[in-house]
């Protein structure tokens, strides 16, 4: 069974992704954290909280505190001061140090068997590549939440947060041309709207897991209303975990991805699906980019995995037309 490492920056949608993964049959062997939505120490606490809610004992490892080059810019305006809507949870568990070595050691011990699910800035992966690219080339596969191929960004007209906050790491990652890289960016995640009806259904489910999901999404829902008059919130990261559970949820296309590291378009993912052959190898096919998503299949996996005791309720809400309006 594939060994999976989640590389995250929790953050509300990362926490939902950790919850989904931890409640699924996926073999999660560890969680590595980098500064992103919040700084790495707070992000590690938030990762531990999601695992405690899921009732799982999976090791968490702290990684990069800062981007490779750029000044660090968090996303507490979107996720709340603590990264989880200001809930300021206290946790029993403690995070380890050594995220980069954990990634490299796990791949060394399990060549071609490790899947990395990268849901934050790519700083940890870029540092692992820098430290030991030969080991990183023995990774089984990498799925990445980040970028935008044909749709507007969320940090600038062209840049998505994970690539914008550390564009040098993203560029280094794609230049490494690692095997089996699949990227899901805003082109597909903008369709994943956790709607008011869904959030109310979760609240009515009751219980600790439901209350956690309801509580941590409040700040994110308010942000979406204030910033863009969206009702509900876009939950990007769980989509990548669902893809590991059911690959038919998204359709990906071979491409070359490179990332701009300066000036007006900093953090932009430049995605070439039909790379002209006269690019003389500077732009090889180095990834697949997801461009189609079946959101019904996603929410089926999301709700049935996190709330298995409420599958009948979920199916009834779908039948009544409350879901996916
Ligand atoms: O742009 C969305 C991505 O940036 C998500 O992974 C979110 O958690 C933030 O990390
Ligand atoms: Ca994230």
Q: Keywords for this structure?
A:
alpha/beta; two-stranded antiparallel sheet; Inosine-uridine Nucleoside N-ribohydrolase, Chain A; 11 strands; 9-stranded mixed beta sheet; 325 residues; globular; binds alpha-D-ribofuranose
What does this structure look like?
There is one protein chain. With 325 residues, the protein is of the alpha/beta class. 41% of the residues lie in helices and 17% in strands. Helix 2 links the parallel strand 2 (28-33) and strand 3. The protein binds alpha-D-ribofuranose (RIB) and calcium ion. Alpha-D-ribofuranose binds at residues 9, 11, 13-14, 36-37, 119-120, 145, 154, 160-162, 236-237.
Q: Give the SSE string.
A: EHEHEHHEHEHHEHEHHHEHEEEHH
In what order do the strands lie side by side in the largest sheet? 3-2-1-4-5-6-11-9-10
Report the structural category: alpha/beta
CATH superfamily membership: Ribonucleoside hydrolase-like
What general form does the structure show? globular
Blueprint (SSEs and pairs):
Blueprint (H helix, E strand, L loop, with lengths): L2 E6 L3 H12 L4 E6 L6 H15 L5 E3 L13 H4 L19 H11 L4 E5 L4 H14 L4 E5 L15 H5 L1 H9 L5 E4 L1 H4 L3 E2 L1 H10 L2 H9 L1 H11 L4 E2 L3 H8 L4 E10 L9 E4 L14 E7 L1 H12 L4 H9 L6
Parallel strand pairs: 1-2, 1-4, 2-3, 4-5, 5-6, 6-11
Antiparallel strand pairs: 7-8, 9-10, 9-11
This protein binds alpha-D-ribofuranose and calcium ion.
Task: Give a brief outline of the structure.
The chain is of the alpha/beta class and 325 residues long. The protein has a single domain (3-191, 235-296), classed as Ribonucleoside hydrolase-like (Inosine-uridine Nucleoside N-ribohydrolase, Chain A), CATH 3.90.245.
């Amino acid at each position: 069974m594939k060994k999976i490492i989640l590389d995250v920056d929790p953050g509300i949608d990362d926490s939902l992704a950790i919850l989904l993964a931890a409640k699924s049959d996926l073999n999660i062997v560890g969680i590595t954290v980098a500064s992103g939505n919040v700084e790495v120490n707070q992000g590690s606490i938030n990762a531990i909280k999601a695992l405690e809610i899921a009732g799982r004992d999976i090791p968490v490892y702290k990684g990069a505190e800062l981007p490779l080059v750029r000044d660090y810019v968090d996303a507490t305006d979107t996720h709340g001061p603590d990264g989880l809507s200001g809930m300021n949870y206290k946790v029993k568990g403690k995070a380890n140090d050594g995220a980069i070595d954990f990634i490299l050691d796990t791949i060394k011990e399990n060549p071609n068997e490790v899947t990395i699910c990268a849901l934050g800035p790519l700083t940890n992966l870029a540092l692992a590549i820098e430290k030991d690219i030969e080991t990183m080339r023995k990774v089984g596969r990498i799925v990445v939440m980040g970028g935008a191929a044909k749709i507007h960004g969320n940090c600038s007209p062209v840049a998505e947060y994970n690539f914008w906050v550390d564009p040098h790491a993203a560029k280094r990652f794609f230049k490494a041309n690692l095997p089996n890289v699949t990227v899901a960016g805003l082109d597909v995640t903008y369709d994943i709207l956790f709607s008011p009806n869904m959030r109310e259904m979760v609240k009515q489910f009751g219980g600790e897991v439901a209350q956690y999901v309801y509580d941590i999404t409040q700040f994110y829902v308010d942000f979406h209303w204030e910033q863009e008059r969206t009702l509900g919130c876009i939950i990007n990261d769980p989509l990548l975990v669902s893809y590991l559970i059911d690959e038919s949820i998204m359709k990906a296309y071979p491409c070359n991805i490179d990332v701009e590291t300066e000036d007006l378009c900093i953090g932009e993912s430049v995605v070439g699906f039909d790379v002209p052959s006269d690019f003389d190898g500077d732009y090889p096919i180095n990834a697949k980019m997801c461009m189609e998503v079946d959101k019904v299949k996603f929410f089926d996996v999301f709700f049935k995995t996190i709330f298995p005791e409420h599958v009948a309720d979920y199916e009834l809400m779908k039948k009544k037309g409350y879901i996916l309006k």
